[in-house]
Each structure stands twice: as C-alpha cells, then as structure tokens.
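Attaching the record inline, Q. Sequence:
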Amino acid sequence: MADVHKVRFYPVGNGDTSQIELSGGRRILFDYCHRQNSDDDDSPQIDLKSRLTNELSANNRNYFDVVAFTHADEDHICGSTDYFELQHADKYQGDGRIKIRQLWVPAAMLLEEATNEQQSDEFVLLRQEARYRLLEGKDILVFSKPKVLVDWLTPKLKERGELPSARDHLFIDAGTLVPGFSLATDGVEFFCHSPFIKHCDEGDTIRNRAALIFNVRFMAAGATYDFLQVGDAEWDVLEDIVRTTHAHKNGDRLNWNLYNLPHHCSYQALSDEKGDKETMPKPLVKELLHQGQADAYMVSSSRPITDVKEAYEQTQPPHIQARKAYERSLHEIGGRKLLVTMEEPNGLHPEPLEFEISAGGVSRVRSKSSGAKVITSVVAPRAG
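Structure, as predicted:
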C-alpha cells in the first residue's frame, strides 16, 4: 500500500485542533476545542465533536491512538472533558465517550494549582487525569521532568512501595524522539523541541512557555517531510529552540514543509513589538522561518485575518502585522501560501484544511462540492 499520511486542521475559531492520520491507520490528535455555539447552524465554527466522532465511526473506531494537549488554555482543551473518556473517575466513562489510548501532556499540566472554585474546571479535570495515569504507570507520556514534579511524585510512589525511578520511562526530554513511533514502522517520528525543564522550574509556570512543540517528520516513498507543530509559543521560546537545536547539532529538525503558526497568528510569536504595518521577526525567529522548504505551507488556526484599517489596531490575535511578516517569509523561501482555518473555503462555511504527505510530496487537498478530492500543489521530496 502506498504511503499516504494526512494532516488536518479544524476551523474552531481562535483555537486549536489538528489531527495526523498515518498511512497505517494510527491517529494522533493535537488539542481539542469544541465551543458550545459550534452546535448552532448559524455559527461558522465547525461542530468538532460531531465531525471527529463521524470520522472515527467511519473507520470503526471509538478511540485515538494519541491525544496530545499542548497546554491547558481553554482554546486548546474546551469541551474535552465532555468528549473523552477519563480513567480517573467512573462518571467520565461510557456514554459514547472517545477513548485516549495514550495521553501526551507537558509537565506543567500536572503542576498547575487551582482554587476551590476551580475544581470543576476542565484544566483541573485534565490535571487529575494526567496525575492518575502517571501514578498508574500507563497510557501517558509526560514531556519534561522538572524537580517540582519529581518532588510531588516520589513520596506518592513510596506509598505504593515503588522506587523513585519507577516512572522514568514515561518522561520525555526536549531534544529526544518520542518512543512508540518510527520512520521504519509508522512512517513518522516525533522530535520534542519543548518544553525545557527551566520552563517549569523557574518560579510560576506559564502555560505558553511550557507548551508542547514538535518536529513531526514523515516518510513517504523513501523521502522525508517536516511538520512543525507549535503550541502558543512566544518569540523568546522559539529563539531558545533554535539556539539549543543548533547547539546539539540537530539543525535539520528546524526544517518545515508545513508550519502550524503559534498562538493564532499573534505578533508575539515573532517579536515583542507588533509594528505599525508589519511585524519584524527577531533574528532567530527569522532564521526558523527561513528553514521552510520550497512550496511549504503555513496554517493559522484562527479567525479570518483581514487587511482593513481597524485590524492594525486590534489587540488580540490574529494580527494582520504578523500575517504580513509570515507571508513575506513564505515569499522569500519560495513557499506556497498562508492558509487561515476560518477562511477556507470561505468565512461563512469553513471546512477542515487537509494535507496529504505521499510520494509526490506535501499536497493540499480540496474537496469540490461533488465530494471529489483535488490535489492543488506538491512539494518536492527530500531523500530520507
């Protein structure tokens, strides 16, 4: 069977949900954002719950192989505790809930503190789920192992009669490959760029700084292609990643054919200054953008980004100044296009953006009204 992997981005407003569907059938979901009003016929946001469930059902599934929450902000977890089966309590099981075979979370999600009034909040429920799976020693990977988490875990393992090192195999460090996937057997590997330990060990944990960031490398017909899956990182975190990756001689892990823009096309992923007309990226962020390959794509998981006078004064993302900076970078590397999830094919009825990775390269796939798929472009292959 030909190697054809898929990457799909869902139109959920200023929020994130994307899915990798491997040629062998395994599915990896990054984040989940189903807002209440997406059930309304008048809302342009997709009914994510129904869409994902229907996709799984069509493939005789009631589970994802991996669900990765990049961080615990609402626009990355909204509705997740109503949708997924959680192992830590019976009331979150059954009733058609979708199972998570393996949960991926940054260490920060296990460490967040909550007030009494927040105990039913989704980030607290996901924290409980992650802690439960870690203590049980199964169905979870935790990214980064800061001392504060070790200090929490060690006495709990002692109560269970286990050694402090009993869960070491469930922690993944930045700069390493995630176990369980390989180019040889799955046609994919996940290289963890972030979080670094310092993101959780230097005082208060900031979700965006401690978010998951991956280089996802696909193989198809002997050639490899790279997808940068980025959480809501700001420019200084990205510069840290570039600096550290080069220091460890892993510079090829900064390459990309497909780039998930951080934080809904916020200028803060480029610089600390928005700019009047266009954001000027910091030097190492610019270097990262220039590691895009010919015919590469960028995707902004966000509301439409319009070039009108009012947009230049907008405080919250997406920022038109950032879009202009990204589009300039795409032009400089010979890239294809920056696509916005809530704009395609139009702002009234957006549909998921889908890409195929195959022998021909990275291709955007569009569906005509008839349902027939049309491949619109191809990225030249790179030898594996």
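DSSP finds eleven helices and 19 strands in the chain. The chain has a mean pLDDT of 92.

More tomorrow.
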